[in-house]
Amino acid sequence: MPSTPIITSVFDLFKMGPGPSSSHTIGPMKAAFDFRQRLASLPADVQHQAEAIHIYLYGSLSATGKGHGTDRAVIAGLLGWQPETTDPVALMALLRDPALVYTVAVGAETIGLGPQHIHFERKRYESPYANTMVLQLRAGDELLHSEEYYSIGGGFILRKGEPETDPASVAVPYPYSTMTELKAQLTTHALTLDELMMANEMGITGRSRTEVNARIDQLLDFMHKAVRRGLRHTGVLPGSIKLSRKAPILFRKAKGMSHSSDSFLIFLNAYCLAASEENAAGGIVVTAPTSGASGVIPGLTYLAKKHFHYDRATLRAGLLAAAAVGFLVKHNASISGAEMGCMGEIGTASAMGAAFLTRCAQTSDDIGAIEAAAEIGIEHHLGMTCDPIGGYVQIPCIERNAMGAVKAYNAFLLATSGAASFQKISLDAVIKVMKATGRDMSTKYKETSEAGLALSATEC
């Protein structure tokens, strides 16, 4: 049995919430909501003394938090909003008027909260994670209560001092922590990947097979709604870059090229840009595995549905294969741009997309081909920087989603060409390389807007 088996749910990896960044928007909103809940449990006399809440943002949350909407997300969480039910229009309206004071409940008491209470700290903060936020309840200079949170990518958060879930306490029938261990479980128990993933998901969440399938269908529906919205919406995206949406233009062009072999790729690019532009506009998207990479898999699944005409059961099986790859990267490296650069986001999404396509194309899953496709997807994103211009999830992020999807499609073609068994690098090996590369990469290239394309902001 693996020492620390994967106990992540499919529905934690794929989460619905507002863009533009899962680590900067969904994660901080969840952390702020948790803080609000903890304040409600404080003794009444402490609540009565409360005068202010102060939020300190460090690392990438500070460097690109303004462009990523972290300040709005924190306000939303303290107001009691949660990602899945947030109105994106209302979220974008927060802090539009800097003079507006928001009323936050502290148990039976209320206190005012404004932009002056959010501090984008540029100094170094000793923390085990790149994205750190500290929330404090104060009475003047007196600290009444404080919590430290880490946003670790994909909307996942950790609270300092909170014990992690003991994997032994979760009923996972087929535990694994690496692809090697996953394949051993499949061989030992004569299982398909579909069967193993479904059994583990049912054990982790307590949901029935019918409930899991219904929830996966809901995720696919949300992904495809984002694509359809993006194909309709025109105009300029929020922020100082004034970037125009391209997806509707590409979609119209593709429809006018139905007899050209290039139309297929243009359709795929349009679908990925559509979902990614919706994310950049703060719309509701699905982390796949992050919001910054939320154009890759939605674009590929939309393509699979509309052009390949795969049925629901096939799309579900493909999404479970994608989740397996996402779990392995998250468990053994990271899906956070602040930790891994963009190879952690688009690289993982491309690998997941390659696994999705490979599984959908099979009559019964061939784990060797799925592994080869995922490995190729990651291998050709190694070292990719995360250098968003102006801190907005727009340039190069939006086009990078389309490029990641195209690479996923090519990885699928390479892996299913009949030569998957010739692949020399395993998925486990490339994930180790990914982790080492992220560790060695300069912090400037990991979602700080301090290097790379981010320095082209003055030219936009």
From TrEMBL:
Domain Serine dehydratase beta chain stretches: 9-161
Q: Does the keyword Transmembrane helix apply?
A: no
Per its Swiss-Prot or TrEMBL entry, what cofactor is needed? [4Fe-4S] cluster
Q: Which UniProt keywords apply?
A: 4Fe-4S, Gluconeogenesis, Iron, Iron-sulfur, Lyase, Metal-binding
Give the matching Pfam families: SDH_alpha (PF03313), SDH_beta (PF03315)
- Protein name per Swiss-Prot or TrEMBL: L-serine dehydratase
Pathway given for this chain reads:
Carbohydrate biosynthesis; gluconeogenesis
Known EC number(s)?
4.3.1.17
Catalytic activity from the UniProt record: L-serine = pyruvate + NH4(+)
The source organism is Spirosoma utsteinense
